[in-house]
Fold this sequence. Notes:
The chain is α/β, with parallel strands linked by helices. It has helices at residues 12-25, 47-66, 93-97, 117-131, 141-146, 151-159, 161-168, 174-179, 230-240, 253-263, 297-303, 306-314, 327-342, 347-352, 354-358, 372-382, 387-398, 404-425, 436-451, 458-472, 477-489, 497-504, 506-516, and strands at residues 32-39, 70-77, 137-140, 183-185, 198-202, 207-212, 215-220, 226-228, 245-249, 272-276, 279-280, 321-322.
Amino acid sequence: MNNIDYKKVKAWPFQEALKLKNRVSKINNKKIVTFETGYGPSGAPHIGTFAEVLRTNMVRNCLEEISDFSTNLITFSDDLDALRKVPEDYPFPDKLKEYIDYPLSMIPDFTEKYESYADRNNNLLKSFLNNFKFDYNFISSTDYYINGKFDQQLLKILDNYESIINIILPTLRKERRESYSPFLPICKKTKKVLQVPIKVVDKKNGVIAYRENNQYKETLVTGGSCKLQWKIDWAMRWSALNIDYEMNGKDLIPSFDLSSQIANFIENKIPSNMSYELFLDEKGEKISKSKGNGLSIDEWLNYGSSESLSLFMYNNPKRAKKLYFDCIPKSMDEYRKLFISLQNQSITKILDNPLWHIHQKNIPTNTYPIDFTNLLNLVTALNTTNNQTIKDFVKIYLKEEINVLDEKELDKIILLSIKYYKNFIFPNISKRKPDIKESQAIKKLLFEIKNLNDEISAEDYQNIVFKVGKEIFPDDLRKWFISLYQILFGSDSGPRLGSFFNVYGKKKVLFLLEDTIK
RNA sequence: GAGCCCGUAGCUCAGCGGUAGAGCAUUCGCCUUUUAAGCGAGGGGCCCUGGGUUCGAAUCCCAGCGGGCUCACCA
């Protein structure tokens, strides 16, 4: 702790943390503050799930900064939930189809790498979180249900069965009301999660009866024999896990309200809450896996750094943001800009700098020495996927020495830029063919270059380009350069040709030029 | 129907009490060689409208108008 006035820090995670601090400070003997994020492992983790963990962790980080509370981040996987639809991104959809209505954790993983289908998805999430070095406690719903860790709350819910059901029923349509039950029995025979009407039999001992084939069968609500319908499940978790803070997408605002009402009949535990806006695609439509629009975590990390992804997630969580490929270079550049601006900032300003939040206050000492968009331009100009060539050109471009640590960062983003170039820039380049006069000039250029020895300096190249230009376009030298750029790169401007040819190498230069006059 | 968010340069957006900003686009200048996918300079704004709070509002509050999304099946 120190004497910074945190109320003056505008960064949203601090404002959330202050709100939370005020709340938990009123609780007697409060020492540990628990944050929860929920995950439904019915498919590979969605970028929204990931954003939620990231953002929650930022609030957690701020709370630690402004208070003496210990903190705990739970990522809760609702893996006892039933599979309802086969996700499109799973490699074995036909095999999965046979397991509709089965608990996710009881479905085999047909990729044969994990213990179950849920385990596979859980591990995908964990690997993303580990990649970002989060400290979290992973909790499997199945584990908690089966090992009786929710029993106390389950009995309490049964005890208040009527009150709770009266909260839910008015929100449902008539047809649904008849089949609705807060308890979903897990069939002893088939292991399916059943959505059937139930009757309360014995509140004290936790016995209910559910209808199957026109007769009622008794079962316990405890010990993993029943799962809770999700809004009740959510409320139950707040009590069972003592949750103090949880975020959710704006689609769940009504559910949060409902779960809060239900919580009054469990242990009255309602977390401090923030709702965030959903991500949209380029056209402004909600991104979803089934549509395949927007971006996945993997796709972003293919073309951009993890820091740039964090930065994107950090910015304005309460605004609906378009998430598509153009966001990546923008975010990469913004990161570097913020990094540079950080260097001379006062402490309060640093707390407002997104980098402080992204790096959980351990801001690295180095970053890449060139803007990503700039690098993309160079890669495009070079039209190569050779790391070393690109790096050499960057060094010429930057002029000054790059220190070893910055160079490491540069290496990383060169790999990213190559992939970005291949997929988004290269397919859109359209070069034009030279006219007769231009062909003549290029032939002349080829002849001159061939006549030189193999070690040609940038200056020599530049001299030749000028020499040929002056001979063939004596009145409009400018046009000669524009023509060359259009023919070589499909653009009206380009890199200084001398240094470009030099880095590119004689053999490739000759090939490039010959290719234009074929 | 209810809720959430957004209306700022031509476009995409940032700023969120103290002189109106960025990127892209546009206009102009710059290649006989000192970074040309670059650099320099410029144009372009009733910050949706109306009220309120304030010494001061793009920013905070209220009302309206316009747009988008979400929920009311499942999670």
